[in-house]
Amino acid sequence: MPQETLTNKTIFSGIQPSGILHIGNYLGAIRQWIKLQQDNTTIFCIVDEHAITVPYDPKTLPDRVLDVAAAYIAAGIDPEKSIVFVQSNVAAHTELAWLLSTIAPYGQMSRMTQFKDKSKKLSSKDAISLALFSYPVLMAADILLYGTQVVPVGEDQKQHIELTRDIAEKFNSQFGETFILPEPYIPTDSARIMSLTDPAKKMSKSDAEKSYIALTDAPDVIRKKIAGAVTDTEAIFSFKKSGPAVKNLLAIYKAFSDKTEEEIEKQFDDATYKDFKSALAETVITTLEPFQKKYNEIRSEDTELRLILGKGGHRAQGIANAKLHEVKIKMGLV
Fold it and tell me: Are 170 and 52 found together in one domain?
């Protein structure tokens, strides 16, 4: 879906509080959300019920939720323009997920690639929960509750939107017109940031700490991680000719510097890896500095943050409960 058409749309997206947010979360998702909230109805969720589908620490989860909320706001999500809330505070999400699971096709669910990928990372088959298998239905409920028209996603999430559309179509056919069919939105200018240690893998907060740059990393930590990032054999800085490791670092530099590919290639034409990595680290540090200052201010005041999430949850509940009631009527449950 082209970006110019995204006005007067209802948009939903969310991030799991399963670890520290990193630059991939910001460049691939949050930065796009900030633009989208200007001319659309935007709903941004902290999807904590998705975070508990794999082993986690219940003692740290509440702080993780507040960390993500603070990151949203510090990055530029405006709670006055957008609804910002915590998934578990709106019970309609899990109730609708159960209702939708009665029509979700098992065969299609068993083909979901993210389930297969996440299952492989767990220590044993006993650690694979039913919730991990069925969480795409909860994701469908998240989206469908709000009359969502557009879902900003990465390429790896398109399969989930296709499943959501299929479930919505099946429900509409079986029980009557109820759900809008959402469209995936993958902006052409969003950067897909890969791991610093393995450029074949997407940057992930669940991997080793040296593989990602957290939005809250101190300057010396950022310098150390970038200095240790894998590179290619030859120091060629080209968006077309370099290998995947250097292309990833170039993509990060481009995203944070706002320079063109031609300007960057010219700037580092005769540079060494040390020169390039040093320049990249300082660019990332300088760009993140205002975010980190604001984040620390917001995060230090839990009361205000909880009030924002409470107000967002109240607004979300009004929309979600109305849709859930309509669904229950259609299904003969009211």
Answer: yes
> Which residues neighbour 28 within 8 Å (Cβ) at sequence distance 6 or greater?
154, 190, 191, 192, 193
- 205 is a catalytic site residue: yes
Question: Is residue 211 situated within a structural domain?
Answer: no
Choose the catalytic residue: 118, 259, 311, 328.
118
Q: Tokens representing 271? A: 């540079």
Q: Which domain holds residue 227?
A: 216-297
- What pLDDT does 293 receive? 97
For residues 245 and 320, membership in a common domain is answered with no
Model-level pTM? Answer: 0.91
pLDDT at 88: 98
Is 240 labeled as catalytic in the residue annotation?
no
Do 116 and 11 have their domain in common? yes
State yes or no: is 323 an active-site residue. no
Residues 147 and 33 in one domain: yes
Structure-token pair, residue 154: 């990465």
**Active-site entry in 35, 170, 202, 259:** 202
Catalytic hit among 59, 81, 116, 205? 205
* Residue 123 confidence (pLDDT): 64
Residues 316 and 285 in one domain: no
Query: How many domains does the chain fold into?
Result: 2
> Is there a domain that residue 201 lies in?
no
Same-domain check for residues 238 and 141: no
Per-residue pLDDT reduced to its tens digit, 99-146: 999 999 998 888 887 777 777 777 677 778 888 889 999 999 999 999
Question: Exposed, middle or buried, 122 (CB in 10 Å: 0-12/13-18/19+)?
Answer: middle
Among the residue ranges 5-9, 94-98, 297-301, the one predicted with the least confidence is 5-9
